[in-house]
Amino acid sequence: MLSPGEVRERARALRGAEPETVLTWVVGAFPGKAALTVSFGGGGVVLAHLISRIDRAVPVMFLDTGFHFPETYAFKQRFREQYGLNLVELRPLTDPGPLYRTDPDRCCWIRKVQPLERALAAFDAWISAVRQDQSATRSTTELLEYHEIAGRPILKVFPLARWSRADVWRYIRENGIPYHPLLDQGYTSIGCWPCTRPTAPGEPERAGRWSGTGKTECGLHTFTVKREADAVSGER
Ligand code: SF4
């Protein structure tokens, strides 16, 4: 694992780099120790497509909560087969039933956070498609972030941090890659069906997630502890 100073230096070197360059670096710097998480509902397909070109052995982790839309399961399968991804499906150890009705935070914890935390124990670098323009809570996302999970360091890598939604669509169209079919039906961010609705024109991208509950994140990007002093930027 890199030290915080090394992470800072690397972020400087990668400032303004395209996502492909960032991914190529992280895959080479962490052989067998870097993994990507993708929900197949948005910009993650950009990273999955790039990974399929760089190194298909890199694990592409999908959190199977048991509550995804049928379209998500079908699209995930199609995308995996088309690009030969090393798809790893993560599931909860227990089924808490429809806990989303009464305690969505705990539901997400059991169905998403705990399975990912267990899986990340085998990795030093975690790649994700989080972007700054997705929501206020994501607006400070950096290209590289030094985090800890229970005291163990992990490098979070966000190659699309400074990409816009338009950048994602440009990449999808220019490369002719498939995208989630519900994106053509008014959905702008797609998670579990009980907690996702389409958005109206002009609404923020993630407004349809846990709508009306005050909840904005599932916890996947808040359970790790960011070393604030060591956060590093990747300006375009
Ligand atoms: S998004 Fe909803 S259904 Fe999915 S894990 Fe979270 S609370 Fe449960």
Notes on the structure:
The chain is an alpha/beta fold and 236 residues long. It has one domain: HUPs (Rossmann fold). 31% of the residues lie in helices and 13% in strands. The protein has helices at 4-13, 19-29, 44-54, 70-83, 104-120, 165-175; strands at residues 34-37, 59-63, 86-90, 125-127, 144-149, 152-157, 225-226. The protein has a seven-stranded mixed sheet with strand order 3-2-1-4-6-5-7. Helix 2 crosses helix 3 (44-54). It is globular, with a radius of gyration of 17 Å. It starts with a helix and ends in a 10-residue tail after the last strand. Residues 229-236 have low confidence and may be disordered. The structure holds iron/sulfur cluster. Iron/sulfur cluster binds next to helix 5.
Can you describe this structure in just a few lines?
This protein is an alpha/beta fold and 236 residues long. It contains six helices and seven strands; from the N terminus they run ααβαβαβαβββαβ. The chain has a seven-stranded mixed sheet.
List the uncertain runs: 229-236
Q: How is the CATH topology named?
A: Rossmann fold
Which architecture name does CATH use? 3-Layer(aba) Sandwich
> N-to-C terminal Cα separation, in Å?
25 Å
Keywords:
236 residues; Rossmann fold; 7-stranded mixed sheet; 6 helices; globular; binds iron/sulfur cluster
Write the layout of secondary structure elements.
Elements: H1 4-13, H2 19-29, E1 34-37, H3 44-54, E2 59-63, H4 70-83, E3 86-90, H5 104-120, E4 125-127, E5 144-149, E6 152-157, H6 165-175, E7 225-226
Parallel strand pairs: 1-2, 1-4, 2-3, 4-6
Antiparallel strand pairs: 5-6, 5-7
Helix pairs in contact: 2-3
